Amino acid sequence: MIIQMTSGIKFLQYLVLLVILFNLEARVADSNIIRCIDEEREALLTFKASLVDESGVLSSWGPEDEKRDCCKWTGLRCSNKTNHVILLDLQPIDFDSFPLRGTISPALLKLHDLRHLNLSFNDFSGSPIPEFIGSLSKLRYLDLFGTVFAGPIPPQLGNLSRLQHLDLGSNYLFSTGNLDWLSHLSYLRYLNLDESNLANSSDWFQVIGKLHSLKTLSLHSCYLPPVIPLSLNHLNSSTSLETLVLSDNNLTSSIYPWLPNISSIFISIDLGFNQLQGSIPESFQHMVYLEHLRLSFNELEGGIPKFFGNMCSLITLNLSNNKLSGQLSEIIQNLSSGCLENSLKSLYLEVNQFTGPIPDLGGFSSMKRLYLSDNLLNGTINKSLGHMFKLEIMCLSQNSLTGVISESFFSNISNLKELHLANNPLVLKLSHDWVPPFQLIIISLSSCKIGPHFPKWLQTQNQIELLDISNTGISDTIPDWFWNLSNKFSFLDLASNQIKGKLPNLSSRFGTSNPGIDISSNHFEGLIPPLPSNSSFLNLSKNRFSGSISFLCSISGSKLTYVDLSSNLLSGKLPDCWWTFDSLVILNLENNSFSGRIPDSMGFLQNIQTLSLHNNRLTGELSSSFRNCSQLRLLDLGKNALYGEIPTWMGESLSNLIVLSLKSNKFHGKIPFQLCQLAFLQVLDLSLNNISGKIPKCFNNFTAMTQERSSDPTIKVYYYTFFGPAYVYHYSFQDKLMLTWKGSEREYRSTLGLVKSLELSSNNLNGAVPEEIMDLVGLVALNLSKNHLTGQISPKIGQLKSLDFLDLSRNQLVGGIPSSLSQLSGLSVMDLSYNNLSGKIPTVTQLQSFNDTVYAGNPELCGLPLPNKCRDEESAAGPGITEGRDDADTSEDEDQFITLGFYVSLILGFIVGFWGVCGTLLRS
Length: 924
Ligand SMILES: *[C@@H]1O[C@H](CO)[C@@H](O)[C@H](O)[C@H]1NC(C)=O
Ligand SMILES: *[C@@H]1O[C@H](CO)[C@@H](O)[C@H](O)[C@H]1NC(C)=O
Ligand SMILES: *[C@@H]1O[C@H](CO)[C@@H](O)[C@H](O)[C@H]1NC(C)=O
Ligand SMILES: *[C@@H]1O[C@H](CO)[C@@H](O)[C@H](O)[C@H]1NC(C)=O
Ligand SMILES: *[C@@H]1O[C@H](CO)[C@@H](O)[C@H](O)[C@H]1NC(C)=O
Ligand SMILES: *[C@@H]1O[C@H](CO)[C@@H](O)[C@H](O)[C@H]1NC(C)=O
Ligand SMILES: *[C@@H]1O[C@H](CO)[C@@H](O)[C@H](O)[C@H]1NC(C)=O
Description:
- It holds the Pfam family LRRNT_2.
- By secondary structure, the chain is mainly beta.
- The strands form eight sheets. It has a 30-stranded mixed beta sheet, with no helix packed on it.
- A hairpin with a 2-residue loop joins β48 and β49 (727-741).
- It binds 2-acetamido-2-deoxy-beta-D-glucopyranose (NAG) (7 copies).
């Protein structure tokens, strides 16, 4: 409008004029002059009508008189010149509010001049992107990120020839064929198709090459087919690409030649989570502007090429989670040869196979984040690390680093925020009155040697969010100041020390975070005091806590997911306030002395998956409210004094059960056939009760037991992840199962998915062993001993090829021993003693190799290894064979078998593990 203002004074005048003009315009706008074009208002109202607006994002939109000017509606902007709507930007108010739902009305097409359409984070519930969006021909910005659209990406978008910014990321989209339509978008500067399935678009890399204006491309998790090397010859492309994200595809090293072909001005490249193999290619060395390179989570091998040392712009080098190897000292020497030393701020080398001691890194003067955890590093830590005064994160966990770290090591490292030294045989010798130069947020020192005294220097660290000093040899009481240290704790791990004393009232010590607390395996004693009411998980197991657990009722519960109070001296009734714990997934109260009934309110644990009350003194019948715990996968009520019949609802309602143990209680009555509905059941233990009647014929309905291997790892590993402002930490636990035999325990964790057992011993079961049991070919243990079972051993027993234990002893089984038994090649324990079996023990080495005691107490049985020969054999058998067998049936052996009768005791429990990944999953 006013151009060529040469003198400063004129320019000032112009400014004044402008200000007046703007003021005027503002006043005009305030008075009721309507700019909105009627036709567009109608179209927008139609558009609104097809949306569901639960949080009132569009409350300013309406036909009412006072709302007439649609240019003032939320999320809209009109052109100041033409009054046409040019921008429509409808974001949810915040992350907690309901997004817009519904459909997008074609009335939108009436907004001829629309340049900017942003519907990101709304929810179109799996409907396809309407093709007519391709007719909004003036669009420059189209942002549909995270809008829950599903279906094909409409090629009609290729008609939006002025588009500069296209974001379809984080939806459920796929491409039906080639991406030719994209190449019409020649002004495109930004393209994001994250999480779209482009498996059918093998031309993706050629099409990208035609987008000459493209600066940013993100194709994370797109099932991209690999670049076909030959087709690169015809490709004469060059884009303006600066930022390239191709992570989480199955790309191979055929991508390398494409990179320099496509752009020479890369600033950031992310090829993480692919299948890059072999050594790191040279092609990166000519990318002189490169600031961020991520190649993590691939299968790269070899060392780190020397040229990186000369990449003067490089700020972040992320090579974590590969198979890179070599002496770290040589590698650092190579990287120190040029200007990289000055530029590099973040070096991620964790989870590789680097060896040797940690060398001098003092030259890297800008380094802020150093990740070397989970390698094969040994030897000592070079003193230079303690002089990297910009260093904020030092992550050296999970190596074999040795030596003594004293306070002088830390003297110059005042910016440190995270110190990860866990799982190294390091000794920390820090004097009692040491005042560290830093304020740490994360301290992870698990399994280093710190004790015997509780580290006093922690008293100066009042910003701590995560403290892990588990298994550090502390044998002390916790000083009072400790509990007032930080109100930001999100995780506190003091497990596996010998910490003594009582806990103070912790209900209000941890601020507003949702802390997780693990103080398991110590010598804590006394009552459990009130704990933080917003706790997210609590592991107090393996201590000497006593008294009741009424403290639980003061926890608000909404975040509580994990409670382990097992193996203490706790007693009294179980509290009856479980309805607050609707997030609880794991509850372990085993090995205590709780008594009384199991409270009805436990039925409110609607998300509970693992519940163990094993080895207490609980009594009464099971409340039918339990049927609501339909997520249960593991239920162990063994070793209590529960009684009544086995409820039918167990089979009807707990359909996710994998492990069910009612062992060693006083249950009576029949096994309800409804139990057969538990198709996922792998372990059923009803032994040591008073259960009578016949074994139901429907056990072949335990589908999981009828399969030799589990298709899924049915036993779950639970992960708890703590996110802080600058870290991610994982806490994991896993269901585990112990099989105890003759005092030695075998533990099944990751292999637990393969453990399948049926234990019905020591009851009053009668009738024949149903043939259907012989279909449970996945069984590892079958124990039917000490019942009144009759009939013959089915020859089909040879089908149970996975069997390791077989105990049919002390029943009234008759007939011969089927020779098919010898097909059970993995059988290590068998007991057929004290039945009425008869005839000859089949002459197959497998069956003869068992101790004769396993056949004892069957007077009609004959042949090796028993001393009594079979009648038809008497002449054939040489006299020497039976030598020394005369005392086979002594009372001593009988005792032996009585203990053997208890041979399998299932102990269900939990494995807990805790490890930091130093947060690199999220950051780079
Ligand atoms: C249009 O006018 C508004 C004030 O009414 C102003 O904020 C905006 O910058 C103007 N837009 C253009 C493109 O001039
Ligand atoms: C669209 O809205 C989202 C969410 O607020 C915002 O992050 C994004 O930058 C916007 N997109 C465009 C192209 O302006
Ligand atoms: C839009 O694109 C489709 C297919 O890409 C084409 O058939 C159609 O003619 C185009 N429509 C307009 C209005 O350009
Ligand atoms: C990569 O390939 C494997 C099998 O080779 C497949 O299971 C996986 O889904 C693929 N991942 C991606 C991101 O394409
Ligand atoms: C480190 O490990 C290597 C290879 O296992 C071994 O040869 C070397 O002696 C170890 N060094 C130290 C200091 O333990
Ligand atoms: C066997 O399992 C099926 C499905 O899991 C169930 O519908 C049926 O009732 C079961 N049979 C018995 C006898 O429980
Ligand atoms: C059978 O077991 C008993 C008791 O363990 C033992 O004393 C005996 O030696 C065993 N016999 C053979 C042949 O292994």
